[in-house]
Protein: trypsin
Organism: Pieris macdunnoughi
Amino acid sequence: MWILLISIISLLCNIDAKPSDITGKIINGAEAPEGALPYQASIRLQDGSHFCGGAILNTKWILTAAHCIEPAYMRYIRVVVGTNDVKNGGQQFKLSKITCHPDFTKKNYLNDVCLLQVDGTIHFDSKVKSIALPETETKAGANLLISGWGKISEDPESYPQKLLMQNVTAISTEECKKSLGKFIPIDDTKICTNKVKGSSACSGDSGGPLVDGTSVVGIASFVITPCAVFDYPVGYTRVLSYKDWITKSIA
């Protein structure tokens, strides 16, 4: 059973690296100062292995990507908050409930949004805080921030111990369609950001927050692999498109 679980998580977040493949997804990111991103969550297996990111919405709920989560294996999943070090510190929680969007499809990453309810109460302090849902549309040209513990090179074992972050710029839906439309359907429920060859989100960053100031506007969803080799945009679930569903689900 344990081997099966690890295989499923790997399939969801780390599709084989080919130019035409889409995977979960910071290469060439900067190390985040301790406590600078207090909304960041690490989603792990019970042995401590990080596999996806998330964002704290309140003392009970974490926002992440649906492709990261297999609800049938909820008892093996843990959420850790309050630390930049993936091997040390933080508050750890089991889950009491998983609510992924009912119309999520693995084939094309539509409706790639999921909510995790922790078993217990997240204690807020200087290193642990919630992040707001967006109030307005994210427009092309917006300066945004991504963060995570995803791969830092194409080496299969190149996962960082410390949280990394990177500034990115939103591009228009039309520009994203021109680049990624042949691989995956692109519509207004997604946000795409520019990608510079040699610098990118990557496997393990999936589910992590795309942030504009004090609000989470996107959820890391997909990238063309190998990461940072091609100059394709990176795709995120647009949180504003699902704000009503999120608000009702965590009420």
